[in-house]
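Re: beginner question about structure tokens

> Can someone show what the tokenized structure looks like for a real chain? I only ever see the sequence side.

Sure, here's an example I had lying around. Input first:
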Amino acid sequence: MTSKELFLVTGATGKTGSHVVRMLRELGLPVRAMVHRADARSETLAELGADVVQGDLLDLDRVSAAMKGVRAAYFCYPIDPGGLLDATTIFAQAASDERIDAVVNMSQISARREAGSHAARHHWLGERLLDRFPFVTTHLRPTFFAEWLIWQWSRDSTGGVLRLPFADGRHAPISAVDQARVITSILRDPVPHDRAIYRLVGPVEKDHHQIAREIGDALGEPVRYESVGIDAFAEALRAQGNGEFLIQHLTNVAQDYRDGVFAGADDTVEVLSGAPAATVRAFVEANRQAFAGEGQERAWRTVLDR
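And the corresponding structure tokens:
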């Protein structure tokens, strides 16, 4: 391990990255936050004391510059046609050139060789690529974020509605904050987690009927789940203007969900971070204001901002 103390966080204005920056700064640790564009969110990171740098993860020179003096880095890249594997290669080479100690990689629970989703298979390939380099690598495979419940949220005359193509499949939602605690912990002490793959799930597994009821209990109003067909879901995504790469990913993910790929609940988050993951009810109560409006129309446009 080196004597360097600087931590690099990519996707630093995203759902997990922004929390990681905040947590590291609260510990008094130096952080370089790499952002795609300068905006109010990046200004907030600068106010926390982070060294904010703007750059594209597909730009080797920019990434190499961001790696200067870095001890450990968090790598997070959005679902984008053709981008992930190039970005992973560039990131890995820059990290190796600068002799950083460790990379924590945001993957996904559906990542596997036989995945139907091109994006999920790319995540699996990205994991394998990173493992070929000399630095410590840790791969995180979260189930659906609890934040997706906000983005999928809508209302009609009878109350709240979740309309999704997941049939009676089950999962244990996990919040971005809980994931960030895991990421922060591993960045600070990466060696015990070398080449580890962690499935990140919440503490209680539920189907969406149960999730809807728990949201309703927290909000004090009726909430129901309506299952839609995968083909209908794909057409809705096209009507929203989403690209075919994303649609191919999300429709295959929907089938994976029905097949149990996203299922499971355990205490991994608590073991790795020292505190248990939040339940659905606790998440809703902590984010009550976010459920005041509707999220359905923007739901699948914002899932990429991790």
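Each token stands for a local structural state, so reading them left to right follows the chain. The domain at 147-170+204-263+278-305 is CATH 3.90.25.10 (UDP-galactose 4-epimerase; domain 1).
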